[in-house]
């Protein structure tokens, strides 16, 4: 049952950047929203790179192991209908 009724409207969340902190936030918020029945909440993530979030700290390991996967978590997270990953897009200003 959805808890997005009167007084509990759907949230539209914008995350600027797609690094490890963004990935952790999106994963935790998505899981919490699903558990709470907040099925209408949406998250949009602006990513100025063409890739899904990856471990930038471990990128140096690619020089030793070119087959190493640096993807953070399960890539299926970015296929969820309530999560919109906008690649090749940089947030520069916010108009309220």
What does this entry look like structurally?
It comes from Trebonia kvetii. This is Nitrite reductase (NAD(P)H). By secondary structure, the chain is of the alpha/beta class. It has one domain. The protein has one helix and three strands; from the N terminus they run βαββ. It has one helix at 20-35, and strands spanning 12-16, 42-47, 83-87. It has a three-stranded parallel sheet with strand order 1-2-3, with helices on one face. The longest helix is centred in the first third of the chain and has 16 residues, at 20-35. It is globular. The protein starts with 11 loop residues before the first strand and ends in a 9-residue tail after the last strand. The model has no long low-confidence stretch (mean pLDDT 86).
Q: What's the arrangement of secondary structure elements?
A:
Layout: E1 12-16, H1 20-35, E2 42-47, E3 83-87
Parallel strand pairs: 1-2, 2-3
Organism: Trebonia kvetii
Protein name: Nitrite reductase (NAD(P)H)
InterPro entries: FAD/NAD-bd_sf
In short:
With 96 residues, the chain is an alpha/beta fold.
What is the number of domains? 1
* Count of strand segments: 3
Global outline: globular
The averaged pLDDT comes out at: 86
Total number of helices: 1
- What is the distance, rounded to the nearest whole angstrom, between the alpha carbons of the first and last residues? 32 Å
**How large is the share of residues in beta strands?**
15-25%
Q: N-to-C SSE series?
A: EHEE
Please give the largest β-sheet.
Answer: 3 strands, parallel
Instruction: Identify low-pLDDT runs.
Output: none
Query: Helix/strand/pairing class, anyone?
Result: alpha/beta
- Biggest sheet, strands in spatial order? 1-2-3
- Helicity, in percent? 10-25%
The radius of gyration over CA amounts to 15 Å
Protein name: Nitrite reductase (NAD(P)H)
């Amino acid at each position: 049952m959805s808890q997005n009724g009167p007084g509990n409207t759907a949230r539209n969340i914008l995350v600027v950047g797609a690094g490890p902190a963004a990935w952790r936030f999106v994963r935790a918020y998505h899981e919490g929203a699903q558990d709470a029945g907040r099925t209408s909440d949406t998250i949009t993530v602006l990513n100025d790179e063409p890739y899904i979030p990856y471990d930038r700290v471990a990128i140096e390991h690619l020089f030793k192991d070119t087959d190493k996967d640096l993807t953070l978590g399960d890539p299926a997270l970015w296929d969820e209908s309530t999560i919109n990953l906008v690649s090749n897009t940089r947030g520069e200003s916010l108009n309220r």
